[in-house]
Amino acid sequence: MQTSDLRIALFSGNYNYVRDGANQALNRLVGYLLGQGASVRVYSPTVAKPAFVATGDVVNVPSFAIPFRPEYRLPLSLSAKVKRDLEAFAPNVVHISSPDRVARQAVKWAQQRNLPVLSSVHTRFETYFRYYNMSFAEPLVEAWLRRLYRQCDALVAPSESFAQVLREQRMNYDIDIWSRGVDRDIFNSGRRDLAWRRAQGVTDEPVVIGFLGRLVMEKGLDVFSDAIDQLRRRNVPHQVMVIGEGPARGWFESRLPHARFVGFQGGQDLGRAVACMDLLFNPSVTETFGNVTLEAMACGLPVVAAKATGSESLVQDNVTGRLITPGAIQKFTDSLQVYCTDADLRARHGAAGEQRSLDFSWDAINQTVADTYIRLIRQRAARAASAR
């Protein structure tokens, strides 16, 4: 069997209506598969004005806006219309990418037709509750996720560190790595543009500490703010630049009144903005890979990150940046202070990170998913033949 023989039904809770790292990876995967001659049909909620143009054919799944986070939609059901479309498409493998109700119904639909199911795991959903004073729910959510993932033939995770977490949580025992790549045409140290930086109100000196990502509390905005407060109390010269938008922007601006918020940046503009930082501070523990970390490394920046899934597989401590115990404000501040005051160390660790980023090629990475589809189809066929 070849990649061109694949017919993939891909289920996503957010394929393109809000931009994030997970759906950027899914769209790149679909583009690669289509380029290899495979057939792909995407099933996802849609909106009138999505964040970006979807790659491939998208079938709308009934959904409703999530209370308190209306920019996101919750898939409702695998409707009769969607089921008819699925039957007509006749996939030979099903891929789910979010643990919602429609994904669970899609798994059941596939099982009834003896089709293999792959689940890609993009986010540590169970950790989100820590940021909303609901840590008590974490074990319940973990059990809820386990019931779904154990029904899948295999999982793919974006990093080995996260795959190990999934094994320890007994989510599944067939877990491949679907890493992430970086577009070197967009993200590289040559994109640095001090004139653009000055136009944003950011001076050439002192050092610029950057935040990159969607502005939501689960990205560690509180930890970022607390560490910057400590740095100011120590009278360490620095500037802060924030790239991104989100519902917590007002809160973040009130906590960082001296920071420059440059808003959402995309494509070449994003590469330029990242390269105009001097280091990235990424305190999030919810990432399963850390696209923003890789993008910063590709731009030649050292990274101070939480020692958590994702970052652990990218940042080499004391070589390309620092890995700090999650929530350890003093240690985060210590690391930031060292980078702010030691230009040689910044340059050395930044160069090492840029070299490390060269290992991440999108085509090779996406082929591993295609190979996993093929393996699961063959295994399912072999079991069926054995049963006969």
TrEMBL record:
Domain Glycosyltransferase subfamily 4-like N-terminal as annotated: residue spans: 20-185
Keywords for the protein's UniProt record, in alphabetical order: Transferase
Protein name per UniProt: Glycosyltransferase family 1 protein
InterPro entries: Glyco_trans_4-like_N, Glycosyltransferase_grp1
Stored Gene3D superfamilies: Glycogen Phosphorylase B (3.40.50.2000)
Species for this entry: Sphingorhabdus wooponensis
Pfam families: Glyco_trans_1_4 (PF13692), Glyco_transf_4 (PF13439)
One MF term in the entry's GO annotations: glycosyltransferase activity
Domain of life of the source: Bacteria
